[in-house]
Amino acid sequence: MIMACILMSIAWIMLLRSFAKSVVFGCEFVKIAALGYLGVKSDMNPIFFAMAIGYAVYAFCFRKQLSFAAKIIAHAANGLKENPAMFFALLAVKLVYIVQALLYIKFFEASVKVKSVEMVTSPIVDFSGPLVCSTGSQYTCDYTMDYDPNHCDANGGYCGYPESGKQLTCELVEPSWVGSGR
Q1: How far apart are the C-alpha atoms of 52 and 65, rounded to whole Å?
Q2: What is the mean pLDDT of the chain?
Q3: How confident is the model at residue 35 (pLDDT cuts 50, 70, 90)?
Q4: Among 13, 96, 140, 146, whose Cα sits 20 to 30 Å from the Cα of 113?
């Protein structure tokens, strides 16, 4: 697949060197045809047809600038033929970008694996006790079909089982600097 990309890019440069004006105006025609096709496929939507007509008018009005752009493209393609070292310099620059992207991915992947063992305090939950409300003793966790202003959920709290103490455990945690390092 990489070789196919290289061959296509070389063929494209050769096409631009010989047929730059045809390629530029052909691309403009393809854009107009694509907008017309979208208009047909979208239940004859007049917006796409209007866009196609507008783009055709634009291409007609700026045909001199498009011809000039084709001359510049042909000149650049001929310059690349006369100085092929530019192509290898471009490949070297692309190689630097590829290495940078691979390093970015590898460092990001490695940052997920950065963990440390820390003592974490967590509550011991008594599942045998009654549900209690987190907002205080004046609220209840009893659910009724009517709106109950004393119901915990209606007052911004939550119902949960009571805590009977605290326990210390060793856990793998991500250090605080890892997130900002990413």
Answers
A1: 19
A2: 87
A3: very high
A4: 96
What are 55-70's pLDDT values in tens digits? 999 999 999 999 999 9
For the chain, give the percent of residues with pLDDT over 90.
36
Mean pLDDT value of segment 76-101: 86
Asked whether 55 and 63 are in contact (CB, 8 A), the reply is no
3-state helix, strand, coil split of the chain in percent (to 5) is 60, 15, 25
- Tell me the residue length of the chain: 182
Q: Where are the beta strands (DSSP E) in the chain?
A: 116-125, 132-133, 159-160, 163-173
Give, as one character, the DSSP assignment of residue 173.
E
Q: Are 167 and 122 in contact (CB under 8 A)?
A: yes
Residue boundaries of the structural domains of the chain? 2-82, 116-181
Give Cα 171 distance to the centre of its chain. Answer: 33
Using CA atoms, how far apart are residues 31 and 53, in angstroms rounded to an integer? 11
| Nearest C-alpha neighbor of 111 from the set 174, 39, 18 | 174
